Amino acid sequence: MVGPTRLIRITATGDRRKDKRVSGISLPATVDDVKGTIVNISLGGVSFLAEKAALKNGHEAAVTIQFSDCDLEIPVRIIAHEDDTKQEYGLSFLGLDRKAFDRIQRAVTNPYRGM
Does the residue 11 lie in any domain? Predict the structure, then answer.
């Protein structure tokens, strides 16, 4: 007997990133007491638009993402910040527990209902 199947990962073709990404979103978030907005999300990480430029490449922190039904706190590494005048950061997840994985997977696979 075969049990229920679970979507583990969606890979978009022609994208240099390995995970499907949902753009054009706006989720409140905080990284190290810096408030901002998540503007795109995948199972690998997020793009964080900060209210002020205050984070450094390579720094490890925790991002708290405010979904409509819960808040998630996820460890991240700041991997993309090209200059100090910009306030957009690439954050790579350092690990997702089952709750975070399921919640982000739902957001990515069904963005209209999953945020």
Answer: no
Distance of alpha carbon 18 from alpha carbon 42, whole angstroms: 9
Nearest to 103 by CA among 62, 63, 70: 70
Q: In this structure, what token pair is assigned to residue 84?
A: 């100090």
CB of 51 closer than 8 Å to CB of 87: yes
What's the pLDDT tens digit per position in 52-105? 888 888 999 999 999 999 999 999 999 977 666 678 899 999 989 999 999 999
Antiparallel, parallel or unpaired: β 88-93 and 22-31: unpaired
C-alpha distances (whole Å) from 45 to each of 21, 38, 65, 76 are 9, 10, 12, 8
- The reported pLDDT for the residue numbered 62 is 96
Determine what percent of the chain falls in helix, strand and coil, rounding each to the nearest 5: 15, 40, 45
Question: Looking at the domain assignment, is residue 91 inside a domain?
Answer: yes
Is 4 domain-assigned? no
3-state secondary structure of 36: strand
**CA–CA dist 62, 24 (Å, integer):** 22
